[in-house]
Design a protein that fits this description.
Elements (H helix, E strand, L loop, with lengths): L1 E5 L7 E7 L5 E5 L5 E5 L9 E9 L2 E2 L5 E6 L14 E5 L2 E5 L3 E9 L10 E5 L5 E7 L4 E8 L3 E9 L2 E10 L10 E4 L3 E5 L3 E9 L7 E5 L5 E4 L2 E2 L3 E6 L3 E9 L4 E9 L8 E6 L10 E7 L5 E7 L5 E5 L1 E3 L2 E6 L5 E10 L5 E11 L15 E2 L16 E5 L1
Parallel strand pairs: 9-15, 17-24
Antiparallel strand pairs: 1-4, 1-34, 2-3, 2-5, 5-6, 5-7, 8-10, 10-13, 11-14, 12-13, 14-15, 16-18, 18-22, 19-21, 19-23, 20-22, 23-24, 25-26, 25-33, 26-30, 27-28, 27-31, 29-30, 31-32
């Protein structure tokens, strides 16, 4: 059985689906060219049905709002996709000759092509890093790649481990003079990107052939919508920043006249709204089982405010606050004694967090102790930074297929 995950702007993003139930473990998927992926649900060989809870994470961060669903696997259900173990790995080339400073690419191809072990992590290693170094480039899917660079004259064995399969490439480094090739082309890794207002994303490109070097100049056709920095670099990456809704064309040009473009769409609100001044409690007389109000003072009105309460047992209660003017509040009943930590997060209409605040408090049996580290007046909150890992605009749909 598989669960299909579909969404916008997933290419190049690492999706983790936390599967709950028997044999629960994360399923990591990296989508390179498609905006969807399938998660394999384990078969059930037991005598009772098993319920798996699927919770989606993106690049290690929970999608906001949290997306989850359940999939029930009956007791006698067999998997749709047969288990196809990894049989072999073809490493090409099997030998390399390099000059000092020269870089070439190694490619490892998993077999069979429909193996269900394609998510196994590969490990590259140089047996003599003083002679040649190896750098992982792609470590997902059927094809894995790495680059090997000559450091000094001599020989080294570059090894790749995938599962229990080991393959080697013999590398010979000569002291012949090496001049990096002039690029014959340049290509963006992702020719189309989407950002939220205030969001940043990496912009990466490749030079052809591998090992070519060049000074690359980057320009935005509409810098009021999206900027790119640095504007000039000898590297292979830059940073995009979305400023206002709209679109722009990013052009990369090498110093020998080769160019490529990337279309960038910026969505969301033109301004950042919903910053938090402080988080406070309606009373200091706190006791287990006795309700009180969590109050959030706002500097500007957000679309939503989420309250996460970390309990003494390390479980988290997530609540949506009611917004009235520049105040958001929610009623909460602490289930036990101990120290609690509140995190209030404001979001704009695009789901982008725009501010946060925290407060700690202690619950006692008699209700004599009020606040913890926050004190009676609450704590001040600064607007949080907009991190790319948590701000990818994704519309998720999870469905079960047999």
């Amino acid at each position: 059985m598989t669960a299909s995950i579909e969404g916008a702007d997933l290419r190049g993003q690492k999706i983790t689906v936390l599967r709950g139930g028997i044999d629960s473990f994360p399923a990591d998927i990296v989508t390179d060219t498609a905006a969807s992926a399938d998660v394999l649900i384990p078969p059930n060989d037991g005598t009772a049905a098993v319920t798996h809870t699927l919770t989606v994470m993106l690049n290690g961060a929970l999608v906001v709002p949290t997306v989850s669903t359940t999939v029930v696997v009956s007791a006698d259900e067999e998997p749709d996709d047969p288990y196809n173990p990894l049989d072999d790995v073809e490493l090409t080339p099997s030998s390399l000759s390099l000059a000092v400073g020269e870089t070439k690419t190694l490619t490892a191809t998993l077999a069979p092509s429909n193996t269900t072990s394609k998510d196994i992590t590969a490990k590259w290693q140089s047996g003599n890093a003083a002679v040649a170094t190896v750098t992982e480039v792609k470590n997902t899917g059927i094809t894995r790649t790495a680059t090997v660079t000559g450091v000094s004259k001599g020989s080294a064995r570059v090894t790749i481990w995938i599962g229990d399969i080991i393959k080697e490439c013999v590398v010979t480094v000569t002291d012949a003079p090496f001049t990096p090739p002039t690029p014959t082309g340049i290509n963006f890794v992702l020719p189309n990107q989407t950002l939220q207002v205030g969001q940043t994303k990496p912009l990466a490109w490749n030079l052809v052939p591998t090992g070519a070097t060049a000074t690359v100049t980057l320009t935005s056709s509409n810098p009021a919508v999206v900027t790119v920095s640095p504007s000039t670099t000898t590297g292979l990456t830059a940073t995009l920043t979305g400023l206002t809704p709209g679109s722009a064309i990013i052009t990369a040009s090498t110093d020998n006249g080769k160019t490529t473009t990337c279309t960038v769409q910026v969505t969301g609100e033109a301004g950042v709204t919903g910053t938090i001044n402080r988080v406070a409690l309606s009373t200091q007389n706190l006791a287990a089982g006795r309700p009180f109000d969590i109050q959030v003072s706002l500097a500007s009105v957000p679309n939503t405010v989420r309250i996460d309460v970390l309990r003494p047992d390390w479980l988290t209660d997530s609540l949506t606050a009611r917004i009235e003017g520049l105040t958001a509040w929610v009623s909460y009943t602490p289930p036990q004694e101990g120290t609690y930590t509140i995190t209030a997060t404001a979001y704009n209409s695009s789901g982008v967090p725009t501010g946060s605040g925290t407060q700690s408090f202690v619950v006692t049996s008699g209700g004599r102790s009020g606040h913890g580290s926050g004190g009676g007046g609450g704590c001040s909150a600064a607007g949080i930074g907009l991190l790319a890992l948590a701000l990818v605009p994704v519309v998720w749909k999870i469905k079960k297929s047999k």
